[in-house]
Amino acid sequence: MKKRIDSALLEAENAKRESDLNSDYAALGEKLARADIDIETITAKAGEFQVAVPSWGTGTGGTRFARFPGEGEPRNIFEKLEDCAVINELSGCTDSVSPHFPWDKVDDFSELKQQADEYGLKWVSVNSNTFQDQPGQEHSYKYGSLSNTQKASRDLAIQHNLDVIEYGQKLGAKSLTVWVGDGSNHPGQQHFQRAFERYLASMEEIYKGLPDDWEMHIEHKMFEPAFYSTIIQDWGSNLLAAMHLGPKCKSLVDLGHHAPNTNIEMIVSRLIQFKKLGGFHFNDSKYGDDDLDSGSLHPYQQFLIFNELVDAEYRNQEGFGPAYMLDQSHNVTDPAESLINSAIEVQRSYVKALLVNREALYGFQEGNDALMASLELKNAFNLDVSPILAMARLRKGSAIDPLAVYRQAGYRKAMAEARPRDPNATGSGIV
Ligand SMILES: [Mn+2]
Protein backbone atom coordinates (compact mmCIF):
# COMPACT_ATOMS: atom_id res chain seq x y z
CA MET A 1 0.00 0.00 0.00
CA LYS A 2 1.20 3.49 -0.88
CA LYS A 3 2.35 5.49 2.18
CA ARG A 4 2.72 9.22 2.66
CA ILE A 5 4.54 9.12 6.00
CA ASP A 6 8.07 7.71 5.97
CA SER A 7 7.89 4.17 7.41
CA ALA A 8 11.38 4.41 8.95
CA LEU A 9 10.37 7.54 10.88
CA LEU A 10 7.14 5.93 12.05
CA GLU A 11 8.93 2.81 13.25
CA ALA A 12 11.64 4.82 15.00
CA GLU A 13 9.05 6.93 16.83
CA ASN A 14 7.09 3.81 17.83
CA ALA A 15 10.28 2.09 19.02
CA LYS A 16 10.90 4.99 21.44
CA ARG A 17 7.51 4.45 23.07
CA GLU A 18 6.91 0.71 22.81
CA SER A 19 8.40 -0.35 26.13
CA ASP A 20 6.36 2.19 28.13
CA LEU A 21 3.24 1.19 26.22
CA ASN A 22 3.80 -2.50 27.02
CA SER A 23 4.01 -1.68 30.75
CA ASP A 24 0.88 0.48 30.70
CA TYR A 25 -0.99 -2.11 28.66
CA ALA A 26 -0.06 -4.93 31.03
CA ALA A 27 -1.16 -2.88 34.06
CA LEU A 28 -4.50 -2.03 32.44
CA GLY A 29 -4.93 -5.66 31.39
CA GLU A 30 -4.53 -6.76 35.03
CA LYS A 31 -7.02 -4.18 36.22
CA LEU A 32 -9.60 -5.20 33.62
CA ALA A 33 -9.05 -8.90 34.35
CA ARG A 34 -10.21 -8.25 37.95
CA ALA A 35 -13.56 -7.18 36.40
CA ASP A 36 -13.55 -10.28 34.16
CA ILE A 37 -12.80 -8.22 31.07
CA ASP A 38 -10.29 -9.63 28.59
CA ILE A 39 -8.18 -6.73 27.34
CA GLU A 40 -7.29 -8.59 24.14
CA THR A 41 -10.97 -8.80 23.14
CA ILE A 42 -11.37 -5.06 23.68
CA THR A 43 -8.16 -4.24 21.79
CA ALA A 44 -9.28 -6.38 18.83
CA LYS A 45 -12.59 -4.48 18.73
CA ALA A 46 -10.79 -1.14 19.00
CA GLY A 47 -8.71 -2.18 15.98
CA GLU A 48 -11.83 -2.88 13.96
CA PHE A 49 -13.49 0.44 14.75
CA GLN A 50 -13.47 2.94 11.88
CA VAL A 51 -14.89 6.43 11.43
CA ALA A 52 -14.97 8.19 8.04
CA VAL A 53 -13.22 11.48 7.34
CA PRO A 54 -15.22 14.17 5.52
CA SER A 55 -13.33 15.38 2.45
CA TRP A 56 -14.34 18.97 3.28
CA GLY A 57 -12.84 18.69 6.76
CA THR A 58 -9.28 18.51 5.44
CA GLY A 59 -9.33 22.21 4.55
CA THR A 60 -9.57 25.09 6.98
CA GLY A 61 -13.21 25.88 7.69
CA GLY A 62 -14.42 29.32 8.49
CA THR A 63 -17.47 31.24 9.47
CA ARG A 64 -19.73 33.62 7.56
CA PHE A 65 -17.44 36.39 8.81
CA ALA A 66 -14.14 35.15 7.51
CA ARG A 67 -11.96 32.24 6.59
CA PHE A 68 -8.27 32.16 7.42
CA PRO A 69 -6.74 29.55 5.10
CA GLY A 70 -3.82 27.53 6.42
CA GLU A 71 -0.55 26.79 4.73
CA GLY A 72 -0.46 23.78 2.45
CA GLU A 73 -4.13 22.97 2.57
CA PRO A 74 -5.49 20.70 -0.16
CA ARG A 75 -6.69 22.43 -3.33
CA ASN A 76 -8.72 19.60 -4.84
CA ILE A 77 -10.12 16.18 -4.01
CA PHE A 78 -6.90 14.39 -4.98
CA GLU A 79 -4.97 16.43 -2.42
CA LYS A 80 -7.75 16.03 0.15
CA LEU A 81 -7.38 12.30 -0.37
CA GLU A 82 -3.63 12.58 0.29
CA ASP A 83 -4.38 14.16 3.67
CA CYS A 84 -7.01 11.52 4.43
CA ALA A 85 -4.33 8.88 3.74
CA VAL A 86 -2.00 10.53 6.28
CA ILE A 87 -4.78 10.70 8.88
CA ASN A 88 -5.49 6.99 8.40
CA GLU A 89 -1.83 5.93 8.34
CA LEU A 90 -1.25 7.55 11.73
CA SER A 91 -4.57 6.93 13.47
CA GLY A 92 -5.39 3.51 12.01
CA CYS A 93 -9.12 4.19 12.44
CA THR A 94 -10.16 6.27 9.42
CA ASP A 95 -10.14 3.95 6.40
CA SER A 96 -12.90 5.76 4.49
CA VAL A 97 -13.74 9.17 3.04
CA SER A 98 -17.10 10.88 2.62
CA PRO A 99 -17.07 13.20 -0.46
CA HIS A 100 -19.19 16.28 -1.12
CA PHE A 101 -20.46 17.32 -4.56
CA PRO A 102 -20.01 19.39 -6.62
CA TRP A 103 -16.94 20.40 -4.56
CA ASP A 104 -15.30 17.01 -5.20
CA LYS A 105 -16.53 16.41 -8.75
CA VAL A 106 -13.88 15.21 -11.20
CA ASP A 107 -13.96 14.31 -14.88
CA ASP A 108 -12.52 10.85 -14.36
CA PHE A 109 -13.88 9.05 -11.31
CA SER A 110 -11.89 5.89 -12.09
CA GLU A 111 -8.67 7.86 -11.57
CA LEU A 112 -9.98 9.11 -8.20
CA LYS A 113 -11.07 5.64 -7.15
CA GLN A 114 -7.69 4.25 -8.15
CA GLN A 115 -5.85 6.80 -5.99
CA ALA A 116 -8.04 5.91 -3.03
CA ASP A 117 -7.45 2.19 -3.63
CA GLU A 118 -3.69 2.76 -3.62
CA TYR A 119 -3.95 4.40 -0.20
CA GLY A 120 -6.29 1.68 1.06
CA LEU A 121 -9.16 4.14 1.45
CA LYS A 122 -12.83 3.41 0.73
CA TRP A 123 -15.58 5.84 -0.26
CA VAL A 124 -18.62 6.10 1.94
CA SER A 125 -21.73 8.26 2.01
CA VAL A 126 -21.84 10.86 -0.78
CA ASN A 127 -23.17 14.32 0.08
CA SER A 128 -25.16 16.62 -2.17
CA ASN A 129 -25.00 20.40 -2.05
CA THR A 130 -28.12 22.40 -2.82
CA PHE A 131 -27.44 25.07 -0.20
CA GLN A 132 -25.51 27.33 -2.55
CA ASP A 133 -25.79 28.29 -6.22
CA GLN A 134 -23.04 27.16 -8.54
CA PRO A 135 -21.58 29.59 -11.09
CA GLY A 136 -24.00 30.06 -13.98
CA GLN A 137 -26.79 28.11 -12.29
CA GLU A 138 -30.05 28.71 -14.13
CA HIS A 139 -32.50 28.47 -11.24
CA SER A 140 -31.49 29.75 -7.82
CA TYR A 141 -31.67 28.06 -4.40
CA LYS A 142 -32.01 31.42 -2.69
CA TYR A 143 -35.52 30.51 -1.55
CA GLY A 144 -34.82 26.84 -1.03
CA SER A 145 -33.93 23.79 -3.08
CA LEU A 146 -36.01 20.63 -2.63
CA SER A 147 -38.85 22.66 -1.06
CA ASN A 148 -38.60 25.76 -3.30
CA THR A 149 -41.95 27.18 -4.41
CA GLN A 150 -40.58 27.16 -7.98
CA LYS A 151 -40.65 23.78 -9.72
CA ALA A 152 -37.62 24.63 -11.86
CA SER A 153 -35.42 25.05 -8.75
CA ARG A 154 -36.80 21.87 -7.19
CA ASP A 155 -36.15 19.90 -10.38
CA LEU A 156 -32.58 21.15 -10.47
CA ALA A 157 -32.01 20.05 -6.87
CA ILE A 158 -33.56 16.63 -7.54
CA GLN A 159 -31.38 16.12 -10.61
CA HIS A 160 -28.25 17.14 -8.66
CA ASN A 161 -28.98 14.48 -6.03
CA LEU A 162 -29.50 11.86 -8.75
CA ASP A 163 -26.18 12.90 -10.30
CA VAL A 164 -24.48 12.57 -6.91
CA ILE A 165 -25.81 9.00 -6.58
CA GLU A 166 -24.25 8.26 -9.96
CA TYR A 167 -20.87 9.67 -8.85
CA GLY A 168 -21.12 7.59 -5.68
CA GLN A 169 -21.77 4.43 -7.67
CA LYS A 170 -18.59 5.05 -9.65
CA LEU A 171 -16.66 5.32 -6.37
CA GLY A 172 -18.29 2.34 -4.68
CA ALA A 173 -20.27 4.28 -2.06
CA LYS A 174 -23.55 2.89 -0.75
CA SER A 175 -25.44 5.86 0.66
CA LEU A 176 -26.47 9.43 -0.04
CA THR A 177 -26.62 12.01 2.76
CA VAL A 178 -29.07 14.86 2.16
CA TRP A 179 -28.96 18.05 4.15
CA VAL A 180 -30.77 21.16 2.92
CA GLY A 181 -30.75 24.62 4.41
CA ASP A 182 -34.30 25.24 3.18
CA GLY A 183 -36.52 27.21 5.50
CA SER A 184 -37.56 30.75 6.30
CA ASN A 185 -36.27 33.83 8.05
CA HIS A 186 -39.58 35.54 8.82
CA PRO A 187 -42.74 34.34 10.54
CA GLY A 188 -45.37 33.93 7.84
CA GLN A 189 -42.80 33.75 5.04
CA GLN A 190 -43.47 30.08 4.41
CA HIS A 191 -46.49 27.81 4.68
CA PHE A 192 -45.04 25.07 6.89
CA GLN A 193 -47.15 22.21 5.58
CA ARG A 194 -46.94 23.11 1.91
CA ALA A 195 -43.17 23.54 2.13
CA PHE A 196 -42.79 20.12 3.81
CA GLU A 197 -45.07 18.56 1.18
CA ARG A 198 -42.88 19.96 -1.58
CA TYR A 199 -39.75 18.66 0.20
CA LEU A 200 -41.24 15.18 0.54
CA ALA A 201 -42.38 15.09 -3.09
CA SER A 202 -38.84 16.01 -4.21
CA MET A 203 -37.27 13.43 -1.89
CA GLU A 204 -39.62 10.78 -3.33
CA GLU A 205 -38.07 11.40 -6.74
CA ILE A 206 -34.56 10.98 -5.31
CA TYR A 207 -35.60 7.86 -3.39
CA LYS A 208 -36.82 6.31 -6.65
CA GLY A 209 -33.31 6.79 -8.06
CA LEU A 210 -31.59 4.91 -5.23
CA PRO A 211 -29.91 1.66 -6.29
CA ASP A 212 -31.31 -1.42 -4.50
CA ASP A 213 -28.38 -1.76 -2.13
CA TRP A 214 -28.21 1.94 -1.23
CA GLU A 215 -29.61 3.95 1.66
CA MET A 216 -30.53 7.61 1.84
CA HIS A 217 -29.72 9.46 5.08
CA ILE A 218 -31.51 12.65 6.05
CA GLU A 219 -29.55 15.11 8.20
CA HIS A 220 -31.43 17.56 10.39
CA LYS A 221 -30.16 20.91 11.65
CA MET A 222 -31.97 23.27 13.97
CA PHE A 223 -31.14 26.50 12.18
CA GLU A 224 -28.72 28.26 9.84
CA PRO A 225 -28.95 29.53 7.18
CA ALA A 226 -32.71 29.76 7.81
CA PHE A 227 -32.97 31.47 11.19
CA TYR A 228 -36.71 31.28 11.81
CA SER A 229 -37.69 27.85 10.55
CA THR A 230 -35.77 25.04 8.87
CA ILE A 231 -37.58 22.37 6.92
CA ILE A 232 -35.83 19.43 8.66
CA GLN A 233 -35.05 21.17 11.92
CA ASP A 234 -34.96 18.26 14.34
CA TRP A 235 -35.17 14.51 14.66
CA GLY A 236 -38.99 14.69 14.66
CA SER A 237 -39.25 16.09 11.14
CA ASN A 238 -36.30 13.93 10.13
CA LEU A 239 -37.96 10.73 11.32
CA LEU A 240 -41.34 11.67 9.82
CA ALA A 241 -39.68 12.20 6.44
CA ALA A 242 -37.66 8.97 6.71
CA MET A 243 -40.79 6.98 7.64
CA HIS A 244 -42.74 8.59 4.81
CA LEU A 245 -40.07 7.78 2.24
CA GLY A 246 -39.52 4.11 3.03
CA PRO A 247 -37.16 1.51 4.51
CA LYS A 248 -34.10 2.65 2.54
CA CYS A 249 -34.35 6.11 4.07
CA LYS A 250 -32.92 6.68 7.58
CA SER A 251 -32.02 9.56 9.85
CA LEU A 252 -28.51 10.89 10.36
CA VAL A 253 -27.53 12.46 13.67
CA ASP A 254 -25.05 15.34 13.61
CA LEU A 255 -24.11 15.94 17.24
CA GLY A 256 -23.92 19.71 16.78
CA HIS A 257 -27.31 20.15 15.14
CA HIS A 258 -29.46 20.12 18.26
CA ALA A 259 -30.53 22.71 20.78
CA PRO A 260 -28.10 22.94 23.73
CA ASN A 261 -28.71 20.27 26.38
CA THR A 262 -30.80 18.05 24.10
CA ASN A 263 -30.69 14.41 25.20
CA ILE A 264 -29.07 13.13 22.01
CA GLU A 265 -28.40 9.62 23.35
CA MET A 266 -32.13 9.15 23.87
CA ILE A 267 -32.83 10.24 20.28
CA VAL A 268 -30.26 7.67 19.19
CA SER A 269 -32.07 4.98 21.18
CA ARG A 270 -35.43 5.86 19.60
CA LEU A 271 -33.97 5.74 16.09
CA ILE A 272 -32.31 2.38 16.82
CA GLN A 273 -35.61 0.98 18.14
CA PHE A 274 -37.44 1.83 14.93
CA LYS A 275 -34.57 0.80 12.58
CA LYS A 276 -34.12 4.36 11.42
CA LEU A 277 -30.59 5.20 12.57
CA GLY A 278 -28.63 5.80 9.37
CA GLY A 279 -25.46 7.34 10.70
CA PHE A 280 -23.58 10.05 12.54
CA HIS A 281 -21.69 13.22 11.96
CA PHE A 282 -19.45 13.48 15.00
CA ASN A 283 -18.32 16.84 16.37
CA ASP A 284 -18.86 18.83 19.54
CA SER A 285 -20.85 21.96 20.29
CA LYS A 286 -21.13 24.59 22.99
CA TYR A 287 -24.04 26.69 21.69
CA GLY A 288 -25.72 26.10 18.34
CA ASP A 289 -22.63 25.28 16.35
CA ASP A 290 -21.30 22.05 14.88
CA ASP A 291 -17.72 23.12 14.64
CA LEU A 292 -15.81 21.89 17.67
CA ASP A 293 -13.60 18.82 17.66
CA SER A 294 -15.29 15.56 18.68
CA GLY A 295 -15.15 14.89 22.38
CA SER A 296 -13.36 18.18 23.08
CA LEU A 297 -16.13 19.56 25.28
CA HIS A 298 -18.70 16.87 26.10
CA PRO A 299 -16.82 13.56 26.18
CA TYR A 300 -19.40 12.08 28.58
CA GLN A 301 -22.23 12.83 26.15
CA GLN A 302 -20.28 11.17 23.37
CA PHE A 303 -19.70 8.16 25.65
CA LEU A 304 -23.43 7.97 26.48
CA ILE A 305 -24.24 7.93 22.77
CA PHE A 306 -21.81 5.06 22.28
CA ASN A 307 -23.34 3.35 25.28
CA GLU A 308 -26.58 3.16 23.27
CA LEU A 309 -24.73 1.99 20.15
CA VAL A 310 -22.80 -0.74 21.97
CA ASP A 311 -26.00 -1.78 23.72
CA ALA A 312 -27.67 -2.25 20.31
CA GLU A 313 -24.65 -4.29 19.19
CA TYR A 314 -24.81 -6.38 22.37
CA ARG A 315 -28.52 -7.10 21.88
CA ASN A 316 -28.02 -7.86 18.14
CA GLN A 317 -30.66 -5.25 17.39
CA GLU A 318 -32.18 -5.96 13.98
CA GLY A 319 -31.37 -3.49 11.21
CA PHE A 320 -28.55 -1.86 13.19
CA GLY A 321 -25.45 -0.69 11.32
CA PRO A 322 -25.02 3.09 11.34
CA ALA A 323 -22.33 4.86 9.32
CA TYR A 324 -19.82 6.78 11.45
CA MET A 325 -18.41 10.01 10.06
CA LEU A 326 -16.70 13.09 11.43
CA ASP A 327 -18.07 16.51 10.46
CA GLN A 328 -16.38 19.49 12.05
CA SER A 329 -14.86 22.81 11.08
CA HIS A 330 -11.22 23.53 11.85
CA ASN A 331 -10.61 27.24 12.04
CA VAL A 332 -7.53 27.53 14.24
CA THR A 333 -5.90 24.10 14.10
CA ASP A 334 -4.18 22.06 11.41
CA PRO A 335 -7.20 20.12 10.05
CA ALA A 336 -5.21 16.88 9.78
CA GLU A 337 -4.22 17.10 13.47
CA SER A 338 -7.80 17.81 14.53
CA LEU A 339 -9.14 14.93 12.44
CA ILE A 340 -6.55 12.47 13.80
CA ASN A 341 -7.31 13.50 17.36
CA SER A 342 -11.09 13.53 16.85
CA ALA A 343 -11.18 10.10 15.23
CA ILE A 344 -9.29 8.71 18.23
CA GLU A 345 -11.66 10.47 20.65
CA VAL A 346 -14.65 8.84 18.91
CA GLN A 347 -12.88 5.47 19.04
CA ARG A 348 -12.17 6.12 22.74
CA SER A 349 -15.89 6.57 23.46
CA TYR A 350 -16.64 3.31 21.68
CA VAL A 351 -13.99 1.40 23.64
CA LYS A 352 -15.15 2.80 26.99
CA ALA A 353 -18.73 1.81 26.17
CA LEU A 354 -17.49 -1.76 25.58
CA LEU A 355 -16.34 -1.87 29.22
CA VAL A 356 -19.86 -1.46 30.61
CA ASN A 357 -21.16 -4.68 32.17
CA ARG A 358 -24.47 -4.83 30.31
CA GLU A 359 -26.04 -7.57 32.42
CA ALA A 360 -25.12 -5.79 35.65
CA LEU A 361 -26.58 -2.54 34.25
CA TYR A 362 -29.83 -4.27 33.25
CA GLY A 363 -30.03 -5.69 36.79
CA PHE A 364 -29.62 -2.25 38.36
CA GLN A 365 -32.23 -0.85 35.96
CA GLU A 366 -34.75 -3.59 36.73
CA GLY A 367 -34.13 -3.19 40.46
CA ASN A 368 -34.48 0.59 40.28
CA ASP A 369 -31.00 1.05 41.73
CA ALA A 370 -30.40 4.42 40.13
CA LEU A 371 -27.05 5.14 41.78
CA MET A 372 -25.42 1.82 40.92
CA ALA A 373 -26.77 1.99 37.37
CA SER A 374 -25.26 5.43 37.00
CA LEU A 375 -21.94 4.29 38.49
CA GLU A 376 -21.79 1.31 36.11
CA LEU A 377 -21.59 3.86 33.29
CA LYS A 378 -19.42 6.38 35.09
CA ASN A 379 -16.83 3.80 36.15
CA ALA A 380 -16.38 2.70 32.53
CA PHE A 381 -16.10 6.32 31.43
CA ASN A 382 -13.55 7.15 34.11
CA LEU A 383 -11.13 4.43 33.03
CA ASP A 384 -8.22 5.61 30.90
CA VAL A 385 -8.23 3.32 27.86
CA SER A 386 -5.36 5.10 26.09
CA PRO A 387 -3.07 2.01 26.23
CA ILE A 388 -5.73 -0.04 24.43
CA LEU A 389 -6.07 2.56 21.67
CA ALA A 390 -2.29 2.91 21.31
CA MET A 391 -1.79 -0.88 21.23
CA ALA A 392 -4.51 -1.24 18.56
CA ARG A 393 -2.66 1.35 16.49
CA LEU A 394 0.75 -0.24 16.98
CA ARG A 395 -0.52 -3.66 15.93
CA LYS A 396 -1.81 -2.34 12.62
CA GLY A 397 1.34 -0.38 11.84
CA SER A 398 0.00 3.01 12.86
CA ALA A 399 1.51 5.41 15.38
CA ILE A 400 1.60 5.01 19.16
CA ASP A 401 1.67 8.81 19.28
CA PRO A 402 0.13 9.98 15.96
CA LEU A 403 0.50 13.72 16.53
CA ALA A 404 4.17 13.41 17.51
CA VAL A 405 4.91 11.50 14.30
CA TYR A 406 2.86 13.94 12.21
CA ARG A 407 4.82 16.90 13.54
CA GLN A 408 8.13 15.06 13.33
CA ALA A 409 7.39 14.27 9.67
CA GLY A 410 6.95 17.98 8.89
CA TYR A 411 4.01 17.08 6.68
CA ARG A 412 2.28 20.45 6.64
CA LYS A 413 5.47 22.31 5.88
CA ALA A 414 6.17 19.99 2.98
CA MET A 415 2.64 20.54 1.69
CA ALA A 416 3.01 24.30 1.96
CA GLU A 417 5.78 23.99 -0.63
CA ALA A 418 4.03 21.35 -2.75
CA ARG A 419 0.68 23.16 -2.80
CA PRO A 420 1.14 26.87 -3.39
CA ARG A 421 -2.05 28.73 -2.56
CA ASP A 422 -4.27 30.09 -5.31
CA PRO A 423 -5.23 33.58 -4.05
CA ASN A 424 -8.54 33.37 -5.96
CA ALA A 425 -9.63 30.00 -4.61
CA THR A 426 -12.82 29.90 -2.58
CA GLY A 427 -13.13 27.69 0.41
CA SER A 428 -15.74 25.06 0.95
CA GLY A 429 -18.24 25.65 3.71
CA ILE A 430 -19.31 23.33 6.45
CA VAL A 431 -22.56 21.46 6.94
MN1 LIG B 1 -23.17 17.40 9.37
UniProtKB/TrEMBL annotation:
SUPFAM superfamilies, per database record: Xylose isomerase-like
One MF annotation (Gene Ontology) recorded for this entry: isomerase activity
Keyword terms, alphabetized: Isomerase, Manganese, Metal-binding
Superkingdom field: Bacteria
Pfam families: AP_endonuc_2
Coiled coil regions in record: none
InterPro entries: L-rhamnose_isomerase, L_rhamnose_iso, Xyl_isomerase-like_sf, Xyl_isomerase-like_TIM-brl
Residue ranges occupied by any Xylose isomerase-like TIM barrel domain in the UniProt entry: 100-291
Name of the molecule in the record: L-rhamnose isomerase / sugar isomerase
Organism annotation: Marisediminitalea aggregata
